[in-house]
Amino acid sequence: MPAHARRLTAIDRWIDTAQRALETVAGNPPAQRRNPADTQPDIVLDDAERRHAAGLMRINHVGEVCAQALYVGQASVARDAHTREHLLQAAQEETDHLAWCADRLRELDSRPSLLNPLWFAGSYAIGLAAGLRGDGWNLGFVVETERQVEMHIDEHLESLPAADARSRAILEVMKDDEVRHADNAEAAGARALPMPIPQLMAAASKLMKTVAYRV
User: In this structure, is residue 145 part of a structural domain?
Assistant: First the structure.
């Protein structure tokens, strides 16, 4: 039985969080769904194209590390069981994205960001802070996070080398999932985040993308 399908004590939740953190930052959690890239040919890219594609996929991998941390942090203090289940379900699908991006980075002879522990810790702290404000804020952060992720995936789809069909297939499925997560959170009662929170989130995302492309 999945950990979130039974009643957890506070200690259970902290142990589950620690396990997820280790799997996300240091491990390679398995995907539950088939990698969308499996249906696409593996075209050999030139060195410049390969490095650029790897930089973009490293950004997306970091985004999934942050999403895992954010949602698990929020779920750990969610007051409503339905909200907690919603967050953990979204986190599970983000685990698929994490695994797919990691697979593609290996195919591109590259690696995840060296700063993943820092990205995870910062996002987990944000998730805790959002969760403590209440479930409406919890879901509001889901909506804003997913909308911003959707925008940067669109940018990456335009920027990817034309021949990189495998990365493109992964990002297209990721985008569909992010849109659905945001729509579901809105339907569940998300509160619109007041300014300047969305602006601060966008600024933090821009910094993350700049650093993660290279490190």
Answer: yes
